[in-house]
Each structure stands twice: as structure tokens, then as C-alpha cells.
Specification:
204 residues; alpha/beta; 7 helices; Rossmann fold; five-stranded parallel β-sheet; two-stranded antiparallel ribbon
Length: 204
């Protein structure tokens, strides 16, 4: 199998990265494998859940990026991998792993994937989803309450004292590494069509 092409999709929390990934998967069908940086959060089984809940999950050190780099190298070379899974309710890794097969296109999604140079240099195409901060906050709030079992007050406090600070320090500056900046994420049809043209050209 020929080496895969790897596409990185970064942007702030709630920017629309996942929507964009799903759109690309629909268009590219069985050619795509997708990974999310969130699955590579470090395990904290040694800490009680109250302490785990207080950790900063928006700092680069929260992720085992070295493990993701190693997995991507295997995928790019045509080997399958077992991707870890993160339990956002209990704030640690779950025992579940997901088998991911090598594909022609590998999509990597995450808030901080352009912050790490070794990971960033693996991408054949770097896309940053740029969405207004108010929209991102509302999306995150709805997601964390509905899907991750969080209460509203904790979501607001985390956003004000951790998420926003880390976004300004790490996520926003990483935008300069992007090849393409997409306003409005998965709803920007013109930008998506341009991306797909570029991906098809890379596949040729």
C-alpha cells in the first residue's frame, strides 16, 4: 500500500472541526481514517475523580502526543493501530480501544495539533477552523452538559479560567501554521469544495 496522506484539522473548542471531518468522510467514503487528539488524553487513574476534574485539559501536556505520532507513523506505513478511548465523565482513559485500519487519507482533528512541531510536520495539509468565540462557547456548553455529564456552572468556570486562557496562549497562535483557514467550519461550502479538490489532487 502507498503511504497515506495526512490532513490536520485544528481550531478552538466548538469551532466546527468535527462537522468538517464528518463532511469530508461523507465525500471521500472508504478512503478515510479519522483520529481525534482528544482520545490521546493522558490517563490519571492514580488520582481521585475530584482531582482529575480539576486538571487543565486544554494545555499541551494534557495529551500523550508522542503516542499519537507513533500511531500515525504506523498508519502512514500501512499498518493498523488500536486507538485509545477517553472517558470524559470519569476524566480518565477507558479500557476500550478502537481498531483503525490504514487508509489513503488520514484525518487528524484537535485543538492543539498544530502546537506540536513533530505532529504538525506530519501533515500534508493543515486546516484551521476559525469560528467566533461566542459561538464556540455556546457549542461547548451544550456539548459538555448533554454529552459529558457536566453541570452548567463547572462548564462556565472551566471556560473562563482554563479554556479561554489556553486558547489565547496556544490554539490561536497555532493558526499561523495553517495552509487553509476556514471561517464557519463545516458550513463553509465553498472552502470545503476547495479542500476536496486539493485532496483529490494529492491522491492523484
Amino acid at each position: 500500500m502507498e503511504e497515506s496522506i495526512i490532513i490536520g484539522i485544528a481550531g478552538g473548542t466548538g469551532s466546527g472541526k468535527t462537522t468538517l471531518v464528518e463532511r469530508l468522510k461523507r465525500d471521500l467514503h472508504d478512503k478515510v481514517a479519522a483520529l481525534t487528539h482528544d482520545d490521546y488524553y493522558r490517563a490519571h487513574d492514580d488520582l481521585p475523580i475530584e482531582e482529575r476534574a480539576k486538571l487543565n485539559y486544554d494545555h499541551p501536556n494534557a495529551f500523550d502526543t508522542e503516542e499519537m505520532v507513533a500511531d500515525l507513523k504506523r498508519l502512514k506505513s500501512g499498518y493498523s493501530i488500536e486507538v485509545p478511548s477517553y472517558d470524559f465523565v470519569n476524566h480518565t482513559r477507558s479500557t476500550k480501544k478502537t481498531l483503525v485500519m490504514a487508509k489513503k487519507v488520514i484525518i487528524v482533528e484537535g485543538i492543539l495539533i498544530f502546537e506540536n512541531k513533530e505532529l504538525r510536520d506530519m501533515f500534508d495539509m493543515k486546516i484551521f477552523v476559525d469560528t467566533d468565540a461566542d459561538v464556540r462557547f455556546i457549542r461547548r456548553m451544550v456539548r459538555d452538559v448533554r454529552e459529558r455529564g457536566r453541570d452548567l456552572e463547572s462548564v462556565i468556570n472551566q471556560y473562563l479560567f482554563t479554556v479561554k486562557v489556553m486558547h489565547d496562549e496556544f490554539v490561536e497562535p497555532s493558526k499561523k501554521h495553517a495552509d487553509i483557514i476556514i471561517p464557519a467550519g463545516g458550513k463553509n461550502i465553498v472552502a470545503i469544495d476547495m479542500m476536496l479538490d486539493r485532496i483529490h489532487n494529492l491522491l492523484k
